[in-house]
């Protein structure tokens, strides 16, 4: 509890200061684009929420290093050092709007390569015999690890579209990691997961529902990187944990990303990185919330924005809960993974065709 509390206090205080004095820096920290297809806010808002999360992770790492656990603290500092590239590229984009998606992905891959070397965080198995044989080749394992880590970091960034969406989903996932780490006695993963929960919650209280600050690319890439590294380390260190556990746990943002790539490349014939306004969370906003909650003024737009996120929190729970309960049962986890993907596609096409299930319709 001390780790969570400390991380929360550092993150919430720094985030408060960013929000409180936003007029002093909003000319280069705020998101002034109010018309983009993925923009759903009514006024410029600082998008450097990742700063508080990063700072709290550093502080907790240093204090843990001094006491009470030198080994865990040293490992946390190494993880923080590895994360610099992923967070730095995203944070620089938040400030300058000049870092392309490909450059951010490459920077995250560099962070993943550093973690592979420093922490020995490599994806060595996925519990599929043929693939595991390929992963036994060190170079291949490292390359796939870099792709997987950057992919998850990008996926967290993709679902960061509404107040509280990416942050709450991430906290749910870190809570799952903490539970499984406790079950297998992994103090490092448990401590980092608790630190991330506290740090993200310190940001969350200023982001949801008021939307006074955004996570930004720096925050999203940092969260995704740490989430991926903890999952990889759990699988690498504990053979009793099924490799299907982290797959199901993070399947919502991952499948959202893969489905978006399919929809853009195959269905629409545009580049995979082309922005659009038909992600599942955007459809929930447009097809359910836009007509359910009032006019186009700022107050109603903010309410619609915040009321969109709980739908996706529940969707994420449909995957995270069974992943957490059956973390050592590969067959059950694989079945739930297939069910989730089928349900996602079914739900998406129902909403996009204006056939929203009645149980999803909000009534004032």
Automatic annotation (TrEMBL):
Keyword presence, Nucleotide-binding: no
Coiled-coil regions listed: none
Record's subcellular location: Cell membrane
Name of a matching Pfam family: Glycos_transf_4
Membrane topology value: Multi-pass membrane protein
Keywords tagged on the record: Cell membrane, Membrane, Transferase, Transmembrane, Transmembrane helix
Transmembrane segments: 6-24, 45-66, 72-92, 104-122, 134-155, 162-182, 188-208, 220-237, 243-262, 308-325, 331-349
Domain of life: Bacteria
Keyword Phosphoprotein: no
Protein name as annotated: Glycosyltransferase
């Amino acid at each position: 509890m001390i780790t969570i509390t400390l991380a929360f206090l550092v993150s919430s205080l720094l985030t408060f200061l960013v929000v409180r004095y936003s007029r002093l820096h909003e000319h280069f920290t705020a998101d002034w684009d109010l018309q983009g297809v993925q923009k759903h806010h009514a006024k410029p808002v600082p998008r450097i929420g990742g700063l508080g999360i990063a700072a709290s992770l550093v502080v907790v790492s240093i204090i843990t290093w001094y006491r009470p656990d030198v080994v865990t603290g040293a490992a946390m500092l190494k993880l923080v050092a590895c994360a610099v590239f992923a967070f730095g590229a995203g944070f620089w984009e938040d400030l300058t709007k000049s870092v392309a998606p490909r450059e951010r992905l490459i920077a995250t891959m560099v962070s993943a390569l550093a973690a592979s070397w420093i922490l020995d965080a490599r994806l060595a198995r996925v519990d599929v015999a043929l693939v595991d044989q390929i992963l036994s080749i060190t170079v291949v394992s490292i390359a796939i690890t870099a792709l997987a880590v950057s992919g998850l970091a990008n996926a967290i960034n993709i679902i960061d579209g509404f107040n509280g969406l990416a942050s709450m989903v991430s906290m749910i996932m870190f809570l799952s990691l903490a539970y499984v780490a406790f079950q297998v006695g992994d103090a490092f993963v448990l401590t980092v997961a608790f630190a991330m929960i506290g740090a993200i919650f310190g940001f969350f209280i200023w982001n949801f529902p008021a939307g006074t600050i955004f996570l930004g690319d720096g925050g999203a890439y940092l969260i995704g990187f740490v989430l991926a590294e903890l999952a990889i380390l759990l699988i690498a260190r504990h053979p009793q944990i099924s490799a299907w556990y982290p797959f199901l746990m993070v399947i919502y943002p991952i499948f959202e990303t893969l489905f978006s790539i399919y929809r853009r490349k195959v269905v629409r014939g545009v580049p995979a990185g082309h922005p659009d306004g038909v992600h599942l969370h955007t459809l929930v906003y447009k097809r359910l919330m836009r007509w359910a909650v009032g006019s186009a003024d700022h107050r109603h737009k903010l309410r619609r924005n915040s009321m969109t996120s709980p739908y996706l929190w529940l969707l994420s729970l449909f995957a995270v809960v069974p992943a957490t309960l059956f973390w050592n049962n590969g067959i059950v986890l694989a079945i739930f993974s297939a069910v989730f993907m089928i349900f996602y596609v079914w739900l998406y096409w129902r909403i996009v065709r204006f056939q929203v299930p009645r149980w999803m319709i909000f009534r004032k």
